[in-house]
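Worked example

This section walks through a single chain of length 147. The input is the sequence exactly as stored; nothing has been trimmed or padded.
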Amino acid sequence: MTDTLYNALIVEHDREPRNEGPLPGATHSATIDNPMCGDIVTMRVIVDGQRVVDGQRVIDAKFEARGCALCRAAASLLTLRVIGQTVDEVDAVIDTFEGFVMGSDADRRTAELGDLVAFRGVQSVRSRRTCAMLPFRALAKALLVER
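Given that input, the structure is written out below as tokens.
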């Protein structure tokens, strides 16, 4: 069971997270915690609101997290996934990932998730789903995306 939860990609992003740290000039941010396990994550993004044709785009994203490997790795991979995407595309990623980890929509558009499919192991461990979803929920809150 542990091997399916903590595969090599998750371990790599926990030990060497990408885009970790403060983001000066962030236009949107939100912090969410999981009081059941103590994980806490802050997602910060800079959204360029001037691109009317393309919609608003995330031009940079960073996170700060204290928590388990699943939470930290999810935040790291999420930042890589959303930089350069429109807010609508980010919303679609959040929605697809939530359906994926909750198992209700496990096979729907998994190709669109890219490396985020590394979290397949949390589908069978209900208590760990929240850990993986925490950065996604924080980003949705930061962007005021309804959940």
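What to look for: The first helix runs from residue 2 to 5.
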